[in-house]
Amino acid sequence: METVSTTDFYEACYYIVSGCSITTISCEKVNNKLTCSFSFEGENLPARQIDYFQGRAEVNLLAFRRAYAQVNTYAHQAKRKCEKEESA
């Protein structure tokens, strides 16, 4: 199974609607702000990544909107968890 990581929400959504699974979500500080990185596993991930960056990615808009809400929720949860751990 191939893996890829991204901090780009749209790219993450594309992987989700393409049938890939989130394996980990991590946070790190970049310029004093928390940034989330999503790691995925799935079939043909390098090819999907190339399609995304070359503008050939096509998705169902409703599925993409649902995936975006999911990614956004996961990111907020991960950031809250990281902030709690930092303040502890």
Summarize the biggest pleated sheet: 3 strands, antiparallel
Mean pLDDT metric: 94
Strand content: 25-35%
Strand/helix succession: EHEEHH
Decide which structural class fits the backbone. alpha+beta
Principal-axis shape? elongated
Q: Helical amount among residues, as a percent range? A: 40-55%
Number of helices: 3
The strand count comes to 3
Global Rg: 14 Å
Strand order of the largest sheet: 1-3-2
Termini separation (Å)?
37 Å
The low-pLDDT segments are none
> Could you say how many structural domains there are in total?
1
Can you put this structure into words, describing what you see?
The protein is of the alpha+beta class and 88 residues long. It has one domain. The protein contains three helices and three strands, in the order βαββαα. A three-stranded antiparallel β-sheet has the order 1-3-2. The model has no long low-confidence stretch (mean pLDDT 94).
